[in-house]
Amino acid sequence: MARHGFRDLLALRGEQVQLERTRASLLAVNARLAKRVEQLKSNDRCIQRLIRRELGYVRPGEIVYRFSSRPKGRMSWSAAADR
Q1: Is the pLDDT of residue 73 over 90?
Q2: Within 10 Å of residue 23's Cβ, how many Cβ atoms?
C-alpha cells in the first residue's frame, strides 16, 4: 500500500458512501420527474392546470381576481396586536 494507504482507503470509503447517497437522491428525483412527464403526456387536466398556473390562461367567460400585495408601511393585524 501507499504511504498513507489505510487513511486513503478510509477517505475513499467515505467518498463512496457520499456518492451512493447522492446517486440514490438523484434516482428519486429522476423517478419523480419521469412520473410527471407521464402525467403531462397522458392527462389533459394536468396539462390544463399547468398552463393555467404557469401561463395565466383562463377559459372564456371566467373572471380573474388579482390582489396586490399589502402596501408598504401598513402593519398586519398580528403586528398591530403586538404593539
Answers
A1: no
A2: 10
Residues 2 and 8: beta-carbon distance below 8 Å: yes
Is the Cβ–Cβ distance between 51 and 57 less than 8 Å? Answer: yes
Exposure of 72 by Cβ count < 10 A (0-12 exposed, 13-18 middle, 19+ buried)?
A: exposed
Segment holding 42, helix H or strand E: helix 5-42
- 32-49: per-residue pLDDT in tens? 999 999 999 999 999 999
Global model pTM greater than 0.70: no
Whether 39 and 46 have beta carbons less than 8 Å apart is answered as: yes
Locate 37 and state its grid cell: 412527464
CA distance 74 to 30: 44
